[in-house]
């Protein structure tokens, strides 16, 4: 079955032109087919500079890859015909990080909901359009009489982000890419937005790519997870396995650094020691493992050649030579280790 | 502390009292708009109009800071209490090397020494926060975010203040770097035996760092106590719901958000500020504003329910 959207060996390099010599490899040899089988939630986690937002922009066609291609139903995004591009625009939606910037402060929030209805001819009459809007607002737990007709500044961050979720739902897309959707929302309102996203997947069968720097929320809503480090996949697979028993030293460091909301379990000394190893040396361009300069387990092979993904278990893979006695898998087959929860 | 606006006074911080022991790490947590940063600025007396401190006192070793003259206050900042503000790393002068920026604060407090001595002093401070002495001759843009934040910690501790106020010191940093910076802060704080008031919105960070904590909501302190007790047995309904809404790394579940949203500080509800969102509110909550009262050893909370329960028990 052709994937709805697929990244195949995508590399994105910024700079490196005549004027700006410095090259930044934002994403390197990234492959991921999405939405082929069961609709699922895939978490993509990484720190700043890990390439997670670049990945989102590439998948949305907002950026062209330097190498490789992004395919929509098997066809390169750059070669879509006008009607195909329209279909793509409808099938794949985005929810941005900042629920303040996406609104035009001069329009009421209705504007972000009526525009897609008009653009995609979703309703034949004002009455129908209103019913549609009320339906999606209700789906995200907002009361239309408390939301419509208001200006963005009259709503809280959480409400604004839920209106964005409602807007995405309006188009009944097959895939939603959510880039840090809750990082600017207060803790007490965050849970509701996450619940909305989970509902989209469970009730409406929409696949979701949840991009975040926050492993805890990614763990809560994702089925599968991809950990990015400086543009490359460090570890991927079933979220329970990756978060429960991380195998890649970087994932271990990342999980060890999370401040757990539990005073009885304070930061372990071990992760503290490992984080001190961090230096700001850059490893050679494209040579060796990118984490080698910070890794306490690094040995000579790590500096020579970038590690492939080793499948350490039916449902996970780690790009680390510590696991080199396991079979390696091709980057584009990464989704083979994913779990697909059967719809209940 | 009120902000006087055209729409009327915004009660950003209203009747908040707490004390911090020497060497103690006190966490102050709240959502955006709960008044936590305003409180930090009030303690440092850095409030600018239209903000105004209406009443109250800030005691540092029994001296009321709010009654000091401007000049005394200027001397007290950095030497007596230092602030590491949110995004402090962006407060470094981009066209100045690190060394003169550290020296500047010390010189303005009347410290004079030879060039050689300054070099050593700066190198010592940098080493203290885990940076190499070469950093002294670098510009801020040559440093990573975590390194810049450590430079700010070095400046903050340069005169060994009694109190360090850290207002969201790591909210712009990645988790791994956040861990390093917080460990650095903890180490130097223990070295100089200063107290730390850590202000933030991340319950996880509070659990990791603080000894005691206070929870703020809409400009009020609603609960205060030792971190372990608050996490294991929160008393105020807001604390309970806040802790229940935290996503965990172990248990997957349907997480509960808190219904409703924080009130506008211009138009606070009568009675308890949390009443419109509180699932347990009783009639009394709509009329009477609860005050902070003891609910256990070293603990207090502002809630009528707790008081009613205590009454019923005795």
Task: Kindly describe this structure.
The complex is a heterodimer of chains A (about 350) and B (about 325). A nine-stranded mixed sheet of chain A has the order 6-7-8-3-9-10-12-11-13, with helices on both faces. Chain A is globular and about 70 Å long. Chain A has helices spanning about 50-60, 80-90, 110-120, 125-140, 145, 155-170, 185-205, 215-220, 240-245, 250-255, 270-275, 300-305; strands spanning about 5-15, 25-35, 40-45, 65-70, 75, 90-95, 175-180, 205-210, 225-230, 230-240, 310-315, 315-320, 330. Chain A contains twelve helices and 13 strands. Chain B is an alpha/beta fold and about 325 residues long. Helix content of chain B is about 35%, strand content about 15%. In chain B, the strands form three sheets. Chain B has an eight-stranded mixed sheet, with helices on both faces. The longest helix of chain B is centred in the middle third of the chain and has 18 residues, at about 175-190. Chain B is globular. Chain B starts with a strand and ends with a helix. The chains are: A alpha/beta (about 350), B alpha/beta (about 325). The interface of A and B includes residues 216, 254 and 259 of A.
């Amino acid at each position: 079955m052709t994937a709805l959207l697929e990244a195949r060996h995508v590399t994105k390099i910024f700079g490196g032109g005549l004027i700006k010599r410095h090259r930044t490899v934002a994403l390197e040899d990234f492959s991921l087919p999405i939405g082929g089988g069961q609709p699922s939630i895939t978490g993509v986690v990484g720190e700043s500079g890990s390439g997670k937002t670049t990945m989102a922009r590439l998948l949305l066609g907002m950026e062209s890859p330097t190498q490789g291609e992004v395919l929509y139903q098997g066809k390169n995004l750059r070669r879509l015909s006008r009607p195909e591009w329209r279909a793509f625009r409808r099938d794949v939606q985005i929810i941005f990080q900042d629920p303040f910037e996406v609104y035009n402060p001069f329009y009421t929030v209705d504007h972000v909901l009526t525009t897609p209805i008009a653009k995609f001819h979703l309703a034949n009459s004002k009455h129908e359009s209103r019913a549609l809007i009320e339906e999606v607002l209700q789906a995200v737990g907002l009361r239309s009489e408390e939301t419509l007709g208001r200006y963005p500044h009259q709503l809280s961050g959480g409400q604004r982000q839920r209106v964005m979720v409602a807007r995405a739902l309006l188009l009944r897309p097959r895939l939603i890419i959510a880039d840090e959707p809750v990082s600017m929302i207060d803790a007490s309102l965050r849970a509701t937005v996450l619940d909305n996203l989970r509902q989209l997947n469970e009730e409406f069968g929409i696949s979701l790519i949840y991009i975040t720097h926050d492993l805890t929320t990614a763990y809560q809503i994702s089925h599968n997870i991809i950990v990015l480090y400086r543009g490359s996949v460090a570890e991927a697979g079933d979220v329970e396995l990756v978060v429960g028993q991380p195998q890649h030293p970087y994932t271990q460091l990342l999980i060890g650094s999370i401040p757990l909301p539990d005073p009885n379990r304070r930061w372990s000394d071990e992760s503290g020691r490992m984080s001190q190893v961090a230096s700001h040396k850059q490893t050679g361009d494209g040579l060796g493992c990118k984490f080698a300069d910070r890794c306490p387990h690094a040995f000579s092979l790590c500096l020579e050649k970038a590690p492939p993904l080793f499948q350490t278990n039916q449902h996970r893979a780690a790009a680390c030579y510590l696991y080199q006695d396991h079979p390696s898998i091709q980057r584009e087959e990464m989704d083979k280790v994913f779990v697909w929860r059967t719809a209940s | 502390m009120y902000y006087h606006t055209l729409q009327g006074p915004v009660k950003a911080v209203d009747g908040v009292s707490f004390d911090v022991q020497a060497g103690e790490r006190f966490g102050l947590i709240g959502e955006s708009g709960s008044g936590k940063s305003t409180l930090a600025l009030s303690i440092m007396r850095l409030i600018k109009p239209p903000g105004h401190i209406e009443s109250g006192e800030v005691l540092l070793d029994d001296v009321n800071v709010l009654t000091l003259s401007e000049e005394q206050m200027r001397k007290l900042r950095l030497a007596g209490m230092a602030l590491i503000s949110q995004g402090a790393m962006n407060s470094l002068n981009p066209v100045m090397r690190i060394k003169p920026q550290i020296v500047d604060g010390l010189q303005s407090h009347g410290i004079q020494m030879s060039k050689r001595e300054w070099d050593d002093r700066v190198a010592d401070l940098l080493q203290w926060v885990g940076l190499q002495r070469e950093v002294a001759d670098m510009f801020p843009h040559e440093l990573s975010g975590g390194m810049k934040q450590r430079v700010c910690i070095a400046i903050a501790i340069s005169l060994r203040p009694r109190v360090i106020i850290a207002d969201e010191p790591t909210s712009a940093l990645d988790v791994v770097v956040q861990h390093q910076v917080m460990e650095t802060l903890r180490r130097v704080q223990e070295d100089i035996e200063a107290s730390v008031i850590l202000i933030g919105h991340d319950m996880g960070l509070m659990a990791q760092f603080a000894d005691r904590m206070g929870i703020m909501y809409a400009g009020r302190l609603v609960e205060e106590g030792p971190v372990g007790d608050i996490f294991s047995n929160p008393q105020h309904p807001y604390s309970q719901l806040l802790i229940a809404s935290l996503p965990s790394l172990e248990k997957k579940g349907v997480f509960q958000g808190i219904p409703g949203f924080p009130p506008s500080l211009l138009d606070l509800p009568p009675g308890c500020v949390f009443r419109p969102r509180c699932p347990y509110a009783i009639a009394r909550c709509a009329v009477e504003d609860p005050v902070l009262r003891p609910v256990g050893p070293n603990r207090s909370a502002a809630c009528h329910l707790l008081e009613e329960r205590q009454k019923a028990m005795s």
